[in-house]
Design brief:
- The structure holds 2 protein chains of 2 kinds.
- Chain A is mainly alpha-helical.
- Helices cover about 70% and strands about 5% of the residues of chain A.
- Chain A is flat, with a radius of gyration of 21 Å.
- The relative contact order of chain A is 0.15.
- Chain B is built from 11 helices and 13 strands.
- Chain B is globular.
- Classes of the chains: A mainly alpha, B alpha/beta.
- The interface between A and B is medium-sized, with 24 and 28 residues.
């Protein structure tokens, strides 16, 4: 088996790959931010049993956790405009879909992994010892203050290992954006494969890129985990 | 006591398993690297079935009819080849392929031949063998809305154009004409994205767009704004080095041409009688006599 990586020297391909890598990273970072916002807000609502909203959040979790992320992406990309969610393009005066392919990809990542994040953070909150919570309550902390100063800080720390999984899963899921023509690393790799037929080499390259990105995320999460650890809480890594 | 013994032995046996799996993995990779030397023609005859990669979303070449049957110009060719090779037009398995996976499927041995609007070009000829060319395909044309101002390929610079991954002309479109391509895997997604105004036009093979623009719901809204910038012959594809198989398939295609199968097929699928197919039929007939 002789592997030929000479295509990596083509400046046109280098430009494609770098741009693709940039898109993948940007998409993942924005997806992660959205995921954390949804995760914390959702966990807060369910944990504090906010009337009406808690029911809606549970519905949200069930809906987005129990459907494939690709279906969600296709729904956002192809179906929303069907349902009339369009805006007028100031340049051409045409009705165009409200979300671009990139926005749809970020939204689907944030919503799908956000739904999982709600449950992960909630499990962390439930693992906070009841004595600690009761201690805070007896010292005069209100329900919201207890959440803000006691349950959330400890709960987030306890949910770090599961959250690391979720972060890695988000980065890997981002490659489905290629299916709605977002020029991420997978999309550009497909283009290159179709031109030079070096399928094995290009796939190895893509593989290495995702391993590197995911490993980087894992290392970063471990670092954060160590930085914020409270002695006596959580497993020793 | 027993548990202690197994615990001591466990790492060693695990290592052995890892080694074994590594070796088998290496063998598997090695095996795929060495092309099978068994004669393809013999294999097909032994199997009694020809496995062909065809399009199912590409009228008039290969598409799913209203009756649920796959039909089209290239399906007719494939069936004729099966009949010549194996004696029956039904001794065939049709495998739906798309532009981006057909060559991979062929070289991985999942299909025996490609009859899926495969344009000939030198890059592809390096990794597969082409059969006789059987159709002259109108290259990329541009479909836009009726009120679009685009009249030439030079005017698509910076514009978003929908297309299909793996098309021969995508690179020309970006490199030469400076268009921004929005590429999908299948035609359904491409048409939907265009109708949603995600791109200003569709740049894709002539035959399929010419047919689309004549459809109800499309004909009063859209037009073919710019004609083809190239013509490209299409041919079947087989794995490299299968001389006997290639020869048999080529003979079947020539026979199909001589017997007027392709001319009839053009008529059945409303493709218009092309000079190219008629000429090839004449030549094939002359050769047969």
């Amino acid at each position: 088996m002789n592997l030929d990586f000479s295509w990596l020297a083509d400046p046109y391909y280098q430009y494609w790959l770098l741009r693709g890598l940039g898109t993948t990273i940007l998409m993942s970072v924005l997806g992660l931010v959205l995921m954390m916002v949804i995760g914390i807000a959702g966990a807060l609502i369910i944990h504090l049993r906010v009337p009406v909203l808690a029911t809606w959040t549970t519905l949200f979790v069930e809906m987005f956790r129990n459907t494939p992320p690709l279906v969600q992406l296709f729904f956002l990309y192809f179906m929303l405009s069907e349902m009339g969610l369009t805006l007028t393009d100031p340049a051409t005066g045409q009705r165009i879909p409200i979300f671009s392919g990139f926005t749809c990809a970020v939204l689907s990542l944030g919503l799908y992994n956000g739904a999982l994040a709600i449950e992960i953070i909630r499990s962390g909150l439930l693992a906070v010892p009841s004595q600690t919570v009761e201690g805070a309550r007896s010292l005069g902390y209100s329900r919201v203050q207890t959440f803000r100063y006691i349950e959330l800080p400890i709960g987030l720390r306890l949910s770090m290992p599961a959250m690391t999984n979720n972060v890695v899963s988000l980065i890997k899921t981002s490659n489905q954006a290629a299916l709605v023509a977002v020029a991420d690393i997978m999309y550009t790799a497909t283009q290159i494969m179709l031109e030079n037929f070096r399928n094995l080499e290009v796939m190895i390259f893509v593989w290495v890129v995702y391993v590197a990105l995911s490993s980087l995320a894992v290392v970063a999460m471990r670092y954060i985990d160590r930085l914020i650890r409270i002695p006596g809480y959580g497993a020793v890594a | 006591m027993v548990t202690a013994v197994t615990r001591v032995n466990a790492p060693k046996s695990r290592r052995k398993w890892q080694l074994a799996s590594l070796v088998s993995l290496a063998c598997a990779i090695g095996a795929t690297a060495i092309p099978a030397k068994a004669d393809q023609l013999e294999k097909v005859k032994e199997r009694g079935k020809l496995v062909v990669g065809i399009k199912t979303d590409y009228p008039p070449f290969g598409y799913l009819g209203a009756d649920g049957q796959v039909k089209g110009f290239e399906i007719d060719i494939a069936k004729f080849v099966a009949k010549e090779l194996l004696g029956s037009a039904d001794a065939i398995e049709l495998v739906p392929v798309v532009a981006s996976n057909r060559i991979e499927l062929l070289n991985a041995g999942r299909i025996d031949a490609i009859f899926a609007t495969l344009g000939t070009n030198p890059d592809r000829a390096k990794i597969i063998d082409f059969t006789h060319e059987y159709y002259q395909m109108e290259g990329m044309v541009l479909l836009t809305s009726k009120d679009s101002a685009i009249t030439a390929w030079e005017e698509v610079k910076g514009k978003k154009l929908c297309g299909i991954q793996g098309n021969l002309y995508n690179r020309t479109l970006t490199e030469k004409f400076g268009a921004e391509t929005v590429l999908f895997a299948g035609t359904a997604e491409m048409f939907k994205a265009f109708q949603d105004n995600r791109c200003e036009g569709i740049a894709f093979d002539g035959p399929i767009l010419n047919m689309k623009v004549a459809e109800d719901g499309w004909k009063d809204k859209y037009k073919i704004a710019v004609g083809a910038f190239a013509f490209n012959p299409i041919a079947g594809g087989v794995r490299k080095g299968e001389v006997a198989f290639l020869e048999a398939v080529n003979k079947a295609i020539t026979d199909a041409e001589a017997k007027g199968v392709l001319v009839a097929s053009e008529k059945t699928f409303n493709m218009g009688a092309s000079e190219y197919v008629a000429k090839r039929a004449e030549e094939a007939k002359a050769k047969a006599n």
